[in-house]
Amino acid sequence: MLGLVELFSLAAGATVLVIASVVYVRLVRFGFDATRQPHPARVHAGQASRVELSVRNTNRRRSPVVIVRDPFDRGRRWARFLLAPLQPGETARAAYRLPTERRGVFELGPLSAQLRDPFGLAQSVSDAAPATKLTVYPKVVPIEPLPHTLGHDPHAGADHATALGRGGEDFYALREYQVGDDLRRVHWKSVARTGELMIRQDEMPWQGRATVVVDLRLGIHDADSLERAVSAAASIVSACWQHRSLVRLAATDGTDSGFAAGHAHVDAILEYLATADLGREGGLVPLVDRLRRDGNGGALAVVTTSAAGDSDLGAVNRLRGRFGAVWLVLVEGGGRASGRMADAASGVIRVRTDDDFGPAWNNAIALGRATTAGRR
User: At residue 238, does pLDDT exceed 70?
Assistant: First the structure.
């Protein structure tokens, strides 16, 4: 248009360069097979977790220099590596740490390998590994479990297992062999019959019951109080489960785990709490009334905030006749506490969002136990 040969030459050269770049990334073949291993795949918020990557050249030729990208949390963050040329069948390894400051279920990947031409004008992208998931449980602090209760709980009444036999063939039950079991307790008659190692269980396992209620209503929480409430619920569940109690989690959104004590049960509760969020549906009063009608006994912990109303506190107060002990965890910061709060439970734990939940809970549990012992 301007009649300048220099500009025409420059444009022609740029066009040829772009075409050459596209041809380069199309002609250069590469193929990778990658594996990704998060260690561990389930972690509590704040704990360390790392990913180990292994990339193998599956092509018959030496691979080119490629960029390996592994996105995290739907591409909001990613790990990026420059992969040097690999001989056919050769494997390269790398590792990186994952951010675990927030609870949730996060997606890792898919892992991609990007080939770029030397001028960075064109690229070819190939997926090397599918996506996997990382579960970040809520933060769990070491605390005392809910105390054992007597009375309505049909499983209560003893703090220790009861031996049913002193020798011979007197035993409580058979169970599968686990690593570390004493081989002298193998029940050989069952082994001969089933072909599997079975262990005699000479003691009846004692199991109390612990129910944890978490209030997830939208109107009583802010962002900080929600995280502290979820962390408190997860800590109580973990402490009671480690104390061999049957645990149950119920939430105002309608979730009810039921009573159980296995690893899978507790993992399911913690995974639910990892993604628990506020909602408008449900309420604390209907949930508490249903627990009162069920009458499952044991110990109960209700986790809510200082914005809970008088009707909520009255419903919690009515549970004292159906449970051996009722504890109220009150996360302050969502509103003003009612004056009736101290009468709504066997013990009240008031926690500010910037306080440590562990000492406040342990002090209240110790005080409650001392008070109960004094009454006896």
Answer: yes
| 124 within some domain | yes
Give the tokens for residue 371.
Answer: 């008070």
Residue 353's Cβ-side half-sphere holds a number of Cα atoms within 13 Å equal to: 15
Among candidate residues 204, 236, 257, the one where a domain is terminated: 204
**Cβ atoms < 10 Å from Cβ of 54:** 15
> Domain tally for the chain?
3
Report the pLDDT value the prediction gives residue 370, as an integer from 0 to 100. 64
Q: Say if residue 19's pLDDT is above 80.
A: yes
pLDDT tens column, 67-111? 999 999 888 888 999 999 999 999 999 999 998 999 999 999 899
Most confident stretch, 77-86, 140-149, 151-160, 327-336: 77-86
Dihedral angle, C-alpha 195, 199, 204, 205, nearest 10 °: -100
Q: What is the CA radius of gyration of the chain?
A: 30
CA-based end-to-end distance of the chain:
103
187 pLDDT tier (thresholds 50, 70, 90) = confident
Asked whether residue 152 is domain-assigned, the answer is no
SS3 65: coil
191 and 64 both lie in a single domain = no
Q: Does residue 99 share a domain with residue 216?
A: no
At 50, phi and psi to the nearest 5?
Answer: -135, 155
232 in any annotated domain:
yes
Angle between helices 357-375 and 223-242 (to 10 degrees): 50
Note down the domain range covering 181.
164-204
Closest CA to 348 of 327, 319, 320: 327
Q: Is residue 228 part of a domain?
A: yes
pLDDT at 284 over 50: yes
For residues 34 and 115, state if they share a domain. yes
- Please list, in sequence order, all residues whose beta carbon lies within 8 angstroms of the beta carbon of residue 216, skipping any fewer than 6 positions away: 226, 229, 251, 252, 253, 276, 277, 278, 279, 282
pLDDT bucket at 240, cuts 50 / 70 / 90: very high
DSSP assignment, residue 306? Answer: T
Tokens for 251, please give them: 């939430």
